[in-house]
Amino acid sequence: MSRTRQMRRHAQKMRRNGLQPMVIIDRDDQFPDVAAVLVMRALWRYRSELAPGYLMAALVLGGAGLHLTHPEWWPWMLGAATALASALALSGDRGGLSLRIERVYAAIVAMGAGGWLSAATALGVMFQPLPLMLAGGGVVLAVPWWAHRRRRAKVRVDRQIAAWPEIAQSVGLSGSRAQSAVVDVWGWRARFALARGQTIQDVIGRIPALESALGTFRGAVRVYPTRDDKANRFELRVLDTDPHADAIPWPGPSVSSITEPIDLGPFEDATGARVLLLRRHGLIGGVAGSGKSGGINVLMGNLSACRDVVIWAIDLKRGMELMPWASCIDRLATTPEQAHAMLRDAVTVLEGRAEYLAANGRRVWDPTPEFPALVIIVDEYAELAEDAPEAASDTDSIARRGRAVAVTLIAATQRPTQKAMGKGAVRSQMDVRISFRVRERKDVDLILGQGMLSAGWHAHTLDAPGKFLLSAPEHDTPRRGRAYLLTDDTVTETAERQASIRPPLDEVSLHALDEARTAPVPASTAPPDPSHEDHAETVLRDALDGAPDEGLPIAHLLLITNLSRPTLYRRLAEFVKTGRAVQVGRGRYKASDHVQ
Ligand SMILES: Nc1ncnc2c1ncn2[C@@H]1O[C@H](COP(=O)(O)OP(=O)(O)OP(=O)(O)O)[C@@H](O)[C@H]1O
């Protein structure tokens, strides 16, 4: 056996024992051979860190060669660099540069490198100040590269994957192989193939050993079957940070249609708690301060990003919680009377849609921007049941018959007792249950359903605001999630941005509502208040007269007048036309000065 091979074996053995090999070179040895191998290995191993150096070396060699052979090519190269930089800036996301800052950086590097190369091609690499520019520019541009968090994470993961054969051997899973790995915000995940006869149970039994071998914190490693459910595969999830350690800022809407599942926030293993709300009723429960309103904000942020949903809302706490979203809410009820009227109209819509479907030989309402779903969000459902008991039959109808026609309820309440939920079937009809922290163990069954506490759904142990358990047809095991948190500014910005894409109610529903309004009033029902519109007009005039210089926002005017959005806009347009009011900014109005 050659001396070099002997040394390599010795080094491997030492590495297996956790020791760093030491190279001993005596005079007779083939020093250049061993040293060259070590240097090449280091150059390969640290290729990511050394990439800026490699790029600079390639530019020098390329520039020198091109200057000697084709100096007249420089304009082409400048053109190619410009084209490449533009492509990276405009559509680099398709190549994995998901953040704008990454695309800008890639474009600057492409332009800088291409520009330098074309100058070196025309003038030669030693032409002053080209060497200085290369060295200075290279170092400056290398700093963001070295500092980039995701790149460093990727390198670390690559090295762990490369070391997998040794890790696998030390934890007793020799023969398993990594097939692919991806890095994300919280850590990384990789798919592995098992050796013959090994099972996922063997891997699960070795999780503590794996955590130790990978050098992670306890609880950082999760093992799942792969999507194709092959018995000789598994997916490894390794967390660098605990996703639930701190409040998690909302990354923006995860959907653009109600036909897609909404991401409420990450589970403990950092996978998204995604739930479909299409043709489903939802119940959100939890004690005061447990994060229900935060959860509703996440839902509102997503629903208002869907062009195929009309949102109605009931907030009997005087609109405190839902008011910031008013510009995205088609109709907001803040008094028991308004809530009752709204729910009655929702039943009218439901029936109109059901008739339309039957007449067209269809079974379900498939939401589109022209024929949107209608989602009614009720904050503090218990107050509705108490203050507007006459609305109970309507909520009951919606709960029982609303799914097929995409008229659904999302109710939030602290304790959904039968009394709080009204007498009817509402609670039992809720398909999606989100439980934030509850005070008593027995409340688990109230929110999530009978028998859930004993099945391990321990919502009473959730230990921070925003943490929840999610029960839905696609979520049948208890997993802790943490809802994203929207700051007040995010809510304001999002509501403003998404107000412009809100769809109106469809023709079918509007027609049903119109018919119901013009239909003869049954003797038993009180006649509608004829003074409502006049009253709203007076309230609107008074509000505009007293408006500050910067005007009052539409959301505020909607709330105080209780007019529907189209009616309010029509009134405001009339006022502006007759010179009674002026539009001060985007969606802000006040009385015109000469009226006062
Ligand atoms: N997802 C979250 N992540 C981190 N902190 C949160 C989250 N949600 C809520 N919180 C914190 O908890 C506090 C109470 O939350 P929230 O108002 O949503 O609770 P609630 O259950 O709606 O209470 P109430 O019933 O009194 O309205 C918030 O002020 C916020 O600081």
Automatic annotation (TrEMBL):
Question: Which residues does the annotated region (Disordered) include?
Answer: 517-536
Q: Which residues form the FtsK domain?
A: 259-445
Q: Write down the species.
A: Actinomadura decatromicini
Q: Which UniProt keywords apply?
A: ATP-binding, Cell cycle, Cell division, Membrane, Nucleotide-binding, Transmembrane, Transmembrane helix
Query: Which taxonomic lineage does the organism of this UniProt entry have?
Result: Bacteria, Bacillati, Actinomycetota, Actinomycetes, Streptosporangiales
Spell out the InterPro entries in the cross-references: FtsK/SpoIIIE/SftA (IPR050206), FtsK_dom (IPR002543), P-loop_NTPase (IPR027417)
Task: Enumerate the residues binding ATP.
Answer: G286, V287, A288, G289, S290, G291, K292, S293
What biological-process GO terms show up in the record? cell division
Q: Single GO molecular-function term? A: DNA binding
Q: Which PROSITE patterns match?
A: FTSK
Instruction: Determine if Magnesium is one of this entry's keywords.
Output: no
- List the protein's name: Cell division protein FtsK
Transmembrane annotation, as ranges: 50-68, 74-92, 104-124
Q: Which domain of life is it from?
A: Bacteria
